[in-house]
Amino acid sequence: ASASGNPLLRHLNPEQLAAVTLPARHALILAGAGSGKTRVLTTRIAWLVQTGQVSPAGVMAVTFTNKAAKEMLTRLGTMLPIPVRGMWIGTFHGLCNRFLRAHWKLAGLPQSFQILDAQDQVSAVRRVIKAMNLDEERYVPKQVAWFIAGSKEEGLRPRDVSVRDEQTRKLVEIYQAYEDQCQREGVVDFAELLLRTYELMRDNAALREHYQHRFRHILVDEFQDTNRLQYAWLKLFAGPGNSVFAVGDDDQSIYAFRGAQVGNMSDFEREFHVEHVIKLERNYRSYGNILDAANELISHNRRRLGKNLRTEAGPGEPVRVYEATSDFAEAQWVLEEAQQLHREGTPRSEIAILYRSNAQSRVLESTLFNAGIPYRVYGGLRFFERAEIKHALAYLRLLENPNDDTSYLRVVNFPTRGIGARTLEQLQDAARTSGRSLYQSVGAVAGKGGANLAAFNALVDAMREATRGLTLREIIEHVLEASGLQDYYRNEKEGRERLENLDELVNAAEAFVTQEGFGKDAVALPIDEQAGAIADGDPPAVALADIVPDAETGEIISPLAAFLTHAALEAGDNQAQAGQDAIQLMTVHAAKGLEFDCVFITGLEEGLFPHENALSDFDGLEEERRLMYVAITRARKRLYLSHSQTRMLHGQTRYNIRSRFFDELPEHALKWITPKVQGFGGGRGAQSGWGSAPATPPWSAAPAKIEPRVATSDGVALRVGQSVFHNKFGEGMIVTLEGSGNDARAQINFGRHGLKWLALSVAKLTPIE
Ligand code: ATP
Ligand code: MG
């Protein structure tokens, strides 16, 4: 294909063009943020299809978030004159779900298997721990859930985990019991989607050959964040003669805490005998000041493969830095700036507010909400995670699969039906002994409780009967009414917002139906050459993203089942009406791969960003810095950084000093809206923050040098007689204070732990009022 003549290739620089048109071998594109990696990957798909090198059904592309997958499909839709919705483009989880829907029988799953989200998983683990009569204090459900997910991500089933001590032995027992429970209930968690797919591909040669033959081109975005299991999964799909095209950026590796391995990049080069490694160095996304900030920051990391980015755009606006007195003031400032940007013509959807931890979104959300500004939150406390929505979804899930015990327990007595804890215990015992589901065990409970349970079962059956053949919207409306949920919230004092959310669920379903094309003609894509390659047939590609007919029967799962899957997989984007122009709120992790005209990075405080959990080790700090690099490089035109002197988090007021990252940014690119207060000395330890001398007025040329009498590493000013909290020693009172700056020491009486001397540049102390 001649490059110059092809409109697809017209807007590529020479390196990008070389990457897009590489021969069908394995390739690695290693390049910094905004250099066009995703654009190259998308264009390559379009080019391969357009030039007839592969049919749309022969491409598999993996992205990192649902939002990114959608954007890729949209872009492809504009490049190719064919329907693209049926293409295998999605997240690892989305693709696995699709695979397992098609091969549920081979995978040993019920046809209508449901997906547990992170919260469901923790409550499922909690039930197992209870059933095993173990102490929840010792076996914390959330931690056990992490252990299980971690094991699965290493590809380890319970029998594969090496048991070194008693604690691990118990954890493995819980893991096993949890697996049995999931299997019984017909549910899978996120990690299971991957592991199940991996095992099926590994153990079933016919299936493996089929898919290896089918997907001639496998393309992976954000390759630096694949974990061991995902990498092994890719190796199974990549058969002989296929091409794996991986793009990534080692500086944006931010999932090490979930087992992602940058090492996969060098493994890939070696194991796949990668012939082509292409680097892209020109950034097309951001103005110079933003890029300078990103480059300078990341240069503080030592473990890098090393590359730099340049731009031909001008410097643009300086990066604005704001210091707020409180988190509320910070949110207010963000709001005002965002409004200003909007007035000047920036669409709200081009304004992103980023934060390091989910908990930070609450204040931002309520500020936007009170001002009546539409916003949308990605990740975090999502629409589909709200209690009333989960109740409604539980009823809907029971229609699909009454043996889903998680859903059963959630609503069996909600709204109340006189089913008490004793009755439920009896029911759970009966289910456990017989190895059956709760729904199936109702007969084993005698008396009034048993009768109430039977009535609940009858209600579920009646709803299923009554909704047969209805549209998704009608099904949901019926269930909201018949279950008593709507009445319940109508009578509840604070129920209005919840009722609105339930209405919103109906809207979400409606939007889903239109988007996914249910009820419209599903357009079949051309199927490629491998038809009939394996016994149970190839799932014909249909124009329904992530929804595939059963491989054996050809039956397309019901819109309800599809919607429930969507609800579990998707971070609900429903705070704002679909299509409404809304400000985008998300964690930095969720922002990966995305770009916005204007970006606010909030909460830039020591302990928050970089996160306190990461401060103690070198790798942790480097990962935080990569995270900050990701955050900065999301911005096209304007970047705003803010921190606050005080912040309410987890019910406590914290006094914070600004993040060390400010000191790692080039001064020429910054503009301090509030005056920058000079740190003391070179050491971390000693920046001023709350409790320092009055801030210098903005017009003062030289920032004031401030020497507080004694400050902690967090810049908190301390006095004798003050009560403080220490992570390890608990509550104590300051007896003596000595020295200053990096040498400041305090003698503190910690009661039970006795008198201790602590170096304030190291110790973490929080004052207690
Ligand atoms: P990240 O590392 O953040 O995922 P990336 O390397 O994937 O970034 P893209 O998102 O593909 O980068 O591209 C960044 C921006 O630059 C996009 O808006 C893209 O359309 C634009 N862009 C990329 N290449 C070119 C080009 N050759 N000409 C004009 N614009 C380009
Ligand atoms: Mg990208």
TrEMBL record:
It holds the Pfam family PcrA_UvrD_tudor. Keywords: ATP-binding, DNA-binding, Helicase, Hydrolase, Isomerase, Nucleotide-binding. Residues 288-593 form the UvrD-like helicase C-terminal domain. PROSITE patterns: UVRD_HELICASE_ATP_BIND, UVRD_HELICASE_CTER. It catalyses: ATP + H2O = ADP + phosphate + H(+); Couples ATP hydrolysis with the unwinding of duplex DNA by translocating in the 3'-5' direction. It is an enzyme of class 5 (isomerase). ATP binds at A31, G32, A33, G34, S35, G36, K37, T38. GO terms for cellular component: cytosol; DNA helicase complex. Its EC number is 5.6.2.4. InterPro entries: DExx_box_DNA_helicase_dom_sf, DNA_helicase_UvrD-like_C, DNA_helicase_UvrD/REP, P-loop_NTPase, UvrD-like_ATP-bd. SUPFAM superfamilies: P-loop containing nucleoside triphosphate hydrolases. Residues 10-287 form the UvrD-like helicase ATP-binding domain. It comes from the Bacteria. Transmembrane segments: none annotated. One of its GO terms (molecular function) is ATP binding. One of its GO terms (biological process) is recombinational repair. Belongs to the helicase family. UvrD subfamily. This is DNA 3'-5' helicase. It comes from Caldimonas thermodepolymerans.
